[in-house]
Every structure is written in C-alpha cells, then in structure tokens.
Amino acid sequence: MQRRSFLKNAMVLGSSAFIGSHAQAWPDSHLRISAPGKKIGIIGLDTSHSEAFAKVLNTATAEAPYNGYRVTAAYPYGSKKIAGSYNRIPGYIEKVKGYGVAICADIDELLKQVDCVLLETNDGHLHPEQAAIVFQSRKRVFIDKPLGANLKEVEQVYEAAAKYGSSFFSSSSLRYTSAIKKLKEDAAFGKVVGAFTFSPCTLEPTHEDLYWYGIHGVEMLFAVMGSGCKMVQASHATDVDVATGIWEDGRTGTFRGTRSGIYAFGGEVFGEKRNMVLSDYEGYEGLLNEIVRYFETGNVPVPVQETKEIYAFMSAYQKSKQHRGKPVELHRF
C-alpha cells in the first residue's frame, strides 16, 4: 500500500474508531480534554518510546505529577530505511489511537494542533530536518536520543535551534534513576572522583556505534561525572565496546557497552567518602517529569555543554576505535 493511501486510511479509521468505541473502552479519566497550553504532539511512531509516553501521560490520574499534559496528536514517520523501526509504525499507530491520539498527515498539520512536541523518530538521520521545522514554530520540544546519527548531524540540530532562537531538551531516561537522584542530593557522598557505567550496546549500521543504544550508559556516566571530558580511548571486541574518558581535572570515567550476556543497565560511582552502585532502568516516569517541567518553564534541565559532550565523547570513541585504540580528543562545538 502506498504511504499516502495508508496514512489516509489510518486517519479515517482512527477518527471512527475513537468516536465509535474508545469512549466506551476507556474510563472517563483517560479521555479528559487537555487543558489549554498542554497538548503534546509526537513526531515518529517508529519507537516503543512513543507508545509508552502516550500511555503514561494519557492514562495518568489527576494526582499524577504531569500537570494535565496529554498527547493529543501524532505524525507517524518515522524511519524510512531502518526496517526494525518502520515495520513497527502500523502497530504503534493503532496503539496510540487507543489513547485518544489523532493521526496527522504531516508535521505542519501536527504543529497547528499542539502546544509542545516530543520528537521521537528513532532514526537520528531525520532529526536535523524534523527538529528545524519544530524550531521555526517556536514550540518547546523534547528530542529523544540520538540527536543525530553522527556528530555532524548533532551540530546541525544545535545550529538550527540557534538560527530560530529556540531551545530543546534531550536525555535518556537512565539519567533519572533513583540512585543518580540520591547521589546528587547526598552531600555526605563528597566529590565524584570517578565512575563506571554499563548498558546494552546494540549496533545500527547507519549510526555511529554508541549513538544507537550505548548512549543510555554514556548518559549515565555524564550524569554523575558532569562535563569536562577531554579525551577518549576505545577498546572494541565483537560483543563489547569500552570507552574510557579522561576529564580535565584528572578524573576518569568508563563506559562498557555489551552485546552478549545479561541485558542490564548500571554501574558504580566512586566518591571521596564512599562509593554508590547505580540502579537499573526504572521506567520513563522520571524523564517525563523533567519533560513536563521543561514544557512548563522553558528551563532546560541538562546543561547544554554536558549534552554536547555526550555526543562528542561517543564520536571520539568512534575515531579511537578506527585508529586501533589511539586516544582521541573531544571535538568542541
């Protein structure tokens, strides 16, 4: 079926299904009309994040900490080249329609209906173009990982934001685990002197190695170490990538990305007074709290320089790997 016909049919079916059945299938609390200024649009239904975010927000009780924000519209596309992503689009269309989400034919149509945006497209190659359209609207936007498929594309996202005078927020949910939150609030821990993190690190040939999934563990590393990394050295094997960074103050931080063994996230932080073990993935609620706070205030919760360094770190790893483990300095932009 051609994309235009498919989307037209999906929109017609979405409207009739919502009117005819979902009002009965879901409790009234799940079909509340969004408060003014709190309508969220999703770009990209090619990732599980889209369905998960819509579910959490649109089924939240009035007491939930999301201040009435709901996903009301979505544009499905989305990766066109990564089969594992675009094959999921039809299924996720049906799932988000079940939460009362309208399907739009293009991004411009979506922007007319919403107040803020979750850019969820799984394929980082599409982020510079899609983000630029949102930036022109001056609507606040959360851009899911990765910002691009390589550092050049990440720079393009920042350049577009600067051109249109817009801001954005981007982060992995692993930044907001209870252990990392506790670490930041516990003055008795003392200064972080080093850290080790790990996560799954599946590869996608169209993206730099750590961009596709290893970014989760790298985000954890920077969440506890902060910015200031100056150099990265790579160690690579078939089932593992190890990236060791040296910070300007002499501290070291290491990320281990795995493609075999147990599927888990975690690590350990080394402090002046004691150490702390980092917890595994705990869900999207912590991240969604920060997204809603950003939509409300416009204050980006992660320092811009820190997010930039995360991508510079991963690209420095790529270069070090290509040069058989030679240390590579981070590119500043």
UniProtKB/TrEMBL annotation:
Entry protein name: Dehydrogenase
Short name of one Pfam family: GFO_IDH_MocA
UniProt domain Gfo/Idh/MocA-like oxidoreductase N-terminal: residue ranges: 39-167
Taxonomy, superkingdom: Bacteria
InterPro entries listed in its UniProt record: Gfo/Idh/MocA-like_OxRdtase_N, Gfo/Idh/MocA_oxidrdct_glycsds, NAD(P)-bd_dom_sf
